[in-house]
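Ticket #4471: structure export looks truncated?
Reporter: QA, pipeline team
Priority: medium

Steps to reproduce: submit the single chain below to the structure queue and open the exported record.
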Amino acid sequence: MTPTEVNACRAAIAHWETDLSFSGPKPDGQLGQIVEVLLGTSARIGEALAFRRMDIDMTATEPLMSITGTIITPKGEPVQRQDHPKTSKSQRTTAVPSFTAEAVRSRLSKLTDPSPEALLFCSREGTPLTSANVRRQLRQALSLAGLSGITPHTFRRTVATAINDEASTELAAELLGHADPRITIQHYIRRNEMVDPATARILERAFAKP
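Actual output as written to the record:
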């Protein structure tokens, strides 16, 4: 997506979250915050839903988020957090731009569970959200604005394109925790799991709120 299309998604979600005309449970603001996290971290949707309080450092000069797990739904079992991402080499720490930090701080202020293991995004009971439910909400919010074909993974591809255009394919692969061993080994070892903070500044320029 272009920055204009990204902001159209933001506007559609914000309208959906404040629209009181439909029945059922009212949106609690998490969808928009999840999208800001996707845009600022390149995380897969399961990884974004697995962030815990202990994975987040909003006090650093450049706020940091560590991708250390993912949300899964084993057959016949309830949704749960898995203590490693899609692959073990996907574990990484990234600086995040201000629009992501703003969303995370807002969400943290609403968490009632003070424990380090508390999920950043969760149900009212503190249980994990499912990727399927977030995808459904995203489709619903965007369809009302005539936007279609956009999934959580679209934001990941959009982030990769922005980093590649402004910097390099190698930096984009580092941010994404790319599975290609030739790239992953080179950057994972050199950075010791810490993604170059330049990614936050690039995403700040690309997707800052209007």
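Status: closed, not a bug. The export was complete when the record was re-opened. Leaving a note from the reviewer for reference: The chain has a mean pLDDT of 87.
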